[in-house]
Design brief:
Elements: H1 2-7, E1 17-18, H2 20-26, E2 29-34, H3 37-50, E3 51-57, H4 62-90, H5 95-103, H6 110-120, H7 131-148, H8 153-169, H9 178-186
Length: 193
Amino acid sequence: MAGAFAAQGRVALDAPVSGGITGAEQGTLALMVSGPRAEFAALEPVLRVLGRPFFCGEEAGQAQVMKLCNNLLAAAALAISSEAIVMGVKAGLDPALMCEVINASSGRNSATQDKFPRAVIPRSFDFGFATGLSHKDVRLCVDEAEAMGVPMVVGSAVRQMLAVTSASFGAESDFTSIVKVVEQWAGVEVRAR
């Protein structure tokens, strides 16, 4: 698209966002922007209304790659946290206590800090992001990495976990449903005590 715009003497900027519905409502989105720096500088005051803009580079697509990397990390944190918390619950640990300890320790991540306390432990599974969308994002990231010659061993496993979650609970299910797959395999449920 940037090439087509350039052929017409126009400029295109990539500007994917992260922060969800809450970030959009509160104007706290992370805006990943790539394109000509001068155009970014001219638009930055407008972008600041939406959240915090990050200039990712002048090449078209760099912001998109940044977004894919971020989404992979969010999904991977949720997948591995699901395995760890289910293991702890099977051993008799309280999942809320586990999150508290993890969040005060080296394992803290977005899943243990936000997703588990808000949507998994209370069993609402309503964090606000669909499994199908997360699966698509991770698939796009793994495919792009493969095209670049970057191995994605863990990313591929996360993609498969999301595929299983989507097949089991539907693409429309909340992506926090990934823990349900691990729960079924382990024969326990992560619940508030």
